[in-house]
């Protein structure tokens, strides 16, 4: 029997409320719920967007005063975000808040994935953005040719338009497409770009570095030095097929890649953090971290809820 859409929306609202808790640790259950039915992800992102749009409005709504009982002070009823969100969606946003509020909704809206969850977004012009786990991008309602990668990793498959080049803001840089399929990683203060097809211009108003297919760039915020390298176009965004190809990347980067893919915290022991690895890791569903230990020539152990890639013991 098909799931009732009311139940689906109620579940989505519950996740929105729970994810707002800084101590939330139910990523595995959240990912399983999203994966159970494509309609779950659609409902979640639709209602999360509505929640964001109404955030400021909720703060402005005065708490209604309930008529007092003789001899008792007035009672002020609290309206929670969940109550407002559920009621607003049930009665329709437009009917409740009116055209003026809709006009004032923010131009930018986020699309994000939990660790271990991947998603592809298709834009109005047909361009597509594939998000790896633990990724957040900002899109612009007023400009479908602009995106900001705040954190994580995304593959941009862009429909080229000479009159309106697609731009991606990441860190303190801007990328401009030249008929392009490219992967962008934002980890801490590091930005890494790999081009599979076409070309990308890195910071056209400053360094203006052109990256063609098979080229990669790595930049650190505040550092004028850019690291350029070659990359196999076929290896770009291999994470989409569960395949990670390395040519001398440090173990810290590999740990971060495994964390995004698996949805589990992974870090490298400081003793081997800068050890370089060359090879291919084939990833599957479930707990692959221990299975990869012999390929990485490391020991894998648990420290609380985190997987540690540590030097091998004899």
UniProtKB/TrEMBL annotation:
Keyword Translocase appears in the UniProt entry:
no
Where does the record place the FecR protein domain? 111-200
Annotated FecR N-terminal domain ranges read: 10-47
Q: Which UniProt keywords apply?
A: Membrane, Transmembrane, Transmembrane helix
The membrane-spanning stretches of this chain are 84-102
What Pfam family does this protein match (any one)?
A: DUF4880
Q: Which domain of life is it from?
A: Bacteria
The identity of this protein, by name, is Iron dicitrate transport regulator FecR
Q: Which InterPro entries does this chain map to?
A: FecR (IPR006860), FecR_N (IPR032623), Ferrdict_sens_TM (IPR012373)
Q: Name one GO molecular function term.
A: sigma factor antagonist activity
Keyword Membrane assigned to the entry: answer is yes
């Amino acid at each position: 029997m098909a799931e009732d859409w009311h139940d689906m929306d109620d579940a989505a609202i519950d996740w929105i409320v729970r994810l707002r808790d800084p101590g939330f640790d139910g990523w595995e259950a959240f990912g399983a719920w999203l994966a159970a039915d494509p309609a779950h992800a659609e409902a979640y992102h639709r209602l999360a967007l509505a929640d964001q749009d109404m955030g400021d409005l909720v703060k402005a709504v005065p708490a209604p005063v309930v008529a007092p009982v003789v001899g008792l002070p007035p009672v002020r009823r609290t309206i929670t975000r969940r109550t407002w969100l559920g009621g607003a969606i049930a009665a329709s946003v437009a009917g409740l808040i009116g055209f003026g509020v809709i006009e004032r909704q923010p131009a930018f809206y986020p699309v994000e994935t939990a660790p271990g969850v991947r998603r592809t977004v298709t834009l109005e012009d047909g361009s597509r953005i594939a998000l790896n786990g633990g990724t957040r991008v900002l899109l612009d309602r007023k400009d479908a040719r602009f995106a900001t990668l705040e954190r994580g990793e995304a593959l941009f498959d862009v429909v080229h338009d000479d009159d309106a080049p697609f731009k991606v803001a990441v860190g303190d840089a801007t990328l401009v497409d030249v008929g392009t399929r490219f992967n962008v990683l934002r980890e801490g203060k590091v930005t890494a770009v790999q081009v599979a097809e076409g070309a990308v211009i890195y910071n056209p108003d400053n360094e203006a570095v052109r990256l063609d297919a098979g080229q990669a760039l790595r930049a650190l915020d505040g550092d004028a030095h850019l690291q350029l390298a070659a990359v196999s176009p076929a290896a770009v965004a291999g994470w989409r097929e569960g395949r990670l190809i390395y040519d001398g990347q440090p173990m810290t980067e590999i740990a971060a890649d495994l964390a995004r893919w698996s949805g589990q915290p992974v870090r490298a022991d400081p003793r081997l953090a800068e050890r370089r690895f060359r090879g291919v890791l084939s990833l599957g569903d479930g707990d692959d971290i221990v299975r990869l230990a012999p390929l990485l020539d490391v020991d894998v152990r648990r420290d609380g809820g985190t997987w540690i890639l540590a030097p091998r013991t004899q």
